Every structure is written in C-alpha cells, then in structure tokens.
Amino acid sequence: MRDWKEDGWFNDQTGEITRGCHVDPGHTVIDVGCGDGGFINFCAGQGAEVWFIDRDEAKLASTEARIKSSPARAYRAILSDCDPIPIPDDMGDLVICTEVLEHVADPVKFLGEVIRVARPGAQLLISVPDSRSEQFVSATAPPQCFQEPNHIRIYTDQAFAQLILDAGLEIESHQFNGCFWSMFWPLSWMTCEPGEGLPVDNEHPVIRHWTRLWQLVQRHPDGHKIRDALNQLLPSSQTIVARKPV
User: Fold this and answer.
1) pTM of the predicted protein model
2) 8: helix, coil or strand?
3) H helices within the chain, ranges in order?
C-alpha cells in the first residue's frame, strides 16, 4: 500500500482514490468485483454511499464487516457473478472494476454492464494486470494461473485502452503501477512448495531479501526515480480512469 500512496493513490487529504478521481460524501460508488475491499473501503471512509459486489461469499462478508464500522453514508453488499450486474441503470457517480476483466470470457459484454450502472458523466476506474508482468510471472507460475477461473486474458496497454474507447468511454488517465509485485510473484512462485497455492505468505529468504531491498531503495532520496522507471518498464497493473459521456 505504501508504494500506491507514494504514486498518488488513497489520498485521504484530497479524497482522491487516485489522481484526478475524487470521492465525495454525496457520491454513490459501486465496486464490481470488490475482492478484499481495499478500494471500496477507502470510498466508505470518505463518507460516500457504497455498493460492493463479489461472487466470493467469504470476501464479500469480510468487506461488509469493514464497511459496517466506516463513516459510509449507506452501504449495500451484493453476492453475484455480475452476469448481469443486479443494479439498476445509471446508479453510480463512480464505478470501480479492478483486476476483473482478465477473468471474464466476454470482456466487451462485461464492460458494457459496468458502464450501464454508471450515471452519464460518471467516472469509471478500471484496472487489469499488465501484459509485461503477466509474461514475467508465467516464467515460474503453474499453468493453471492462466486458465479458468484465473487469468484467461492478457492485456497490452494498447489493447486495454482500445477496449475502453470501443466501449464509448473517454479516457482521462492511463497509469502503470506495482512494479514491486512484478518481481515478487515470479520469485515467490519459484520458491514456494508445489501445490501450495497463491504464495502470498512465502517466507523464503529470496522473498525476504527482495522485500528488504525494495524497502531500502524506496528510502533513498532518489528511490522514487527507480520506482517510476520500473512502473513504466514492468508494471504489475495498469489503470484507466475514464468518463461516461453525458
């Protein structure tokens, strides 16, 4: 999270979830595929009304537990596979869909649903893994990581932008982040035990050394230059902030 904050994400002082994407108390924010709820929890902290959807019942319940104690104006948790999204048209002032499109069989149809629930003039924050990181991760990750229900689509930055434009949205920014994770995941897959599953908590010395090295680099006065350069060369994620035409 620290790298994200240094890149302009989750700014409590300005109310920006990322640069140029404000969350106001009067907003209704919809998170399609909320996962662990980091994005929607920030929006709840700004006092917005939040709707969050996921097909994973445990993750949805965990997110709801966090939102209950937040200053959100109102909230609604929805268990759904989002085919279709069980929300009326034109509801959201901001619609979030992060790290979902790489999982869906028909991204054009799915994105159409995401856009449908956004109000005319609303912003949409949409992210997918970057193709450069995906190719690097595939060097050590097991094949099932790129099979259903995992990542079945890989997006170059050009293909991702074209998908957004073809859907009728106006692109306001296209960002690249998460270079730390582009190295973390291949190293973690390389050093985890076979069949261990997603190696988030891998304590192998290689992982500890990489994490420590990254922390030291970021503490250097010029560390941000390394981070910025690597975010352009090997980002783990790419994010587009777009707007639905009025």
Assistant:
1) 0.95
2) coil
3) 2-6, 38-45, 57-68, 107-116, 131-137, 157-166, 179-191, 205-219, 223-233
Nearest to 184 by CA among 141, 242, 147, 128: 141
For residue 197, name the pLDDT band (cuts at 50, 70, 90). low
What CA–CA distance (Å, rounded) separates 88 from 122?
15
- Which of 158, 117, 145 lies closest to 244 in space, CA to CA? 117
Domains and CATH numbers, the chain: 2-130+143-179+236-243 (3.40.50.150)
Give the burial string for 104-126 (b: 16+ CB within 10 Å, else e): beebeebbebbbbbbbeebbbbb
**pLDDT tens-digit map of 53-67:** 999 999 999 999 999
First to last CA, the chain: 34
Mean pLDDT of all residues in 222-227: 95
User: Please, which residues bridge with residue 79 across strands?
Assistant: 54
